[in-house]
C-alpha cells in the first residue's frame, strides 16, 4: 500500500533534467489514482499515475502544459490504450454530477482506500479481490472500498466504509470533477491514509467471501454443464471474426456460435444424459431449444449477478471464450475450459480465478485451448474432465490420505 497522508509516498524524476519531483496533490478522476508533481529545477508540472492497478509496473507521466506523455519502457506497448486517452479526458471533464452513496460501518482514523472504479468489468472485479488481503493482513486499518453499483453486492464483510459512485461501466475512464471533490473532502476526516495497490491480478483470495455463494461441490450428483455466452467476442476463428466485423454481419457469427453450442451440448448430452445444460451470461441474441436452459440476461444487476454465481456454482464445468466473462464462472464452477483467440495468448490464465492450491489438480481443472479447436475435441476434453476428475484427485492426493 502507498501512503498519501500525512505524506505522499511517491518518488519520481523529471524526464527533462532528472531532478527529483515534488508530489503536491493526489487526484481522483475516477479510474486510477494520480498525483500532481512539480520539478523545482525547470518548474514543469506533471500529472503522474500513482503506482496502483495497471500502473504498478507501468508508471507514466504527463507534462500538463504540453500534454506530452512519458512512459517507462516496457515490452507491452498495448498499455498506451490506457494512458494515451487520459489527457483528453482530463482536459474535457464530465459536467454531469455523479451520485455517490457513502456507507459507514465503523469509524477509523487510519484507513486504506481500495479504488475499484474502471471501464472494464473484469478489472473492477480483480481490483475488488484485493480487499481480502487488506482485511486479513492490515487489521489495524479500516478499509474503504470505492465501487460502481454493479459491484456493491460483492464487497466483502468487514470493511469500514463503502463509497458507491454511480458511474456507468462504459464511462469508467472519464474524469468526473465532483467525484474528485467528494473523495478529497472525505479524506479530511482521517489522520493517516494509504491507498491499496489494487493489483490487477491478485493471487490470494476466496471467492465465497465476495459472492457469498459456495464453490462447486463435486459430491453432488446433480450438476450443470454451462456455456458462457458473449456477443462481443465470438466462438470462431480470428480471421473469420475479422471478416464478420469488417462486413458488419456479426449476426451471422452469433448464429454460428449458437450452432456450435448446440452441437457441443448434443455430444455431451449423449455422455451425460442426466446433466442440465445451460447457456448463461450476457446477451440474448438467437434462440435455444427447450432442453437447454437459457439463463442469459441483457444486463447485470445485483440480483442477476447473484443468480449467475449460483448457476456457476452448480456447474461441473463451464466453457467459454477467453476474457472477463470467464472470471466469476471459473471461480465458482468445478472446472473450466477457456477458448483462446489467436491474439490473446499473451494473456493466458488472466481470465481464470484459480481456486485450487495443488498445481497438478489446478492443471486438470483449468484448461486453455485454441478457439479453432474442433467441437469434437472440446467435447472429448470436457467429457474426460468430468468422468476422470475424482480418480485423478485420488491419485494425486493418495500420499496425503494414507
Total strand segments: 17
Radius of gyration: 23 Å
Strand order of the largest sheet: 1-11-8-9-10-7
Distance between the termini: 43 Å
Unreliably modeled segments: none
Quickly count the helices. Answer: 13
Question: Which structural class best describes the helix and strand composition?
Answer: alpha/beta
In percent, how much strand structure appears in the residues?
15-25%
The profile of the biggest β sheet is: 6 strands, mixed
Order of helices and strands: EEEEEEHHEEHHEEHEHEHHEEHEHEHEHH
Helix content: 25-40%
The averaged pLDDT comes out at 90
Shape: globular
Explain how this protein is built:
There is one protein chain. By secondary structure, this protein is α/β, with parallel strands linked by helices. Helices cover 30% and strands 23% of the residues. It contains 13 helices and 17 strands. The strands form three sheets. A six-stranded mixed sheet has the order 1-11-8-9-10-7, covered by helices on one side. A six-stranded parallel sheet has the order 14-13-12-15-16-17, sandwiched between helices. Strands 2-3-4-5-6 form a five-stranded antiparallel sheet, with no helix packed on it. A hairpin with a 6-residue loop joins strand 2 (22-27) and strand 3. Helix 8 (250-271) packs across helix 12 (375-396).
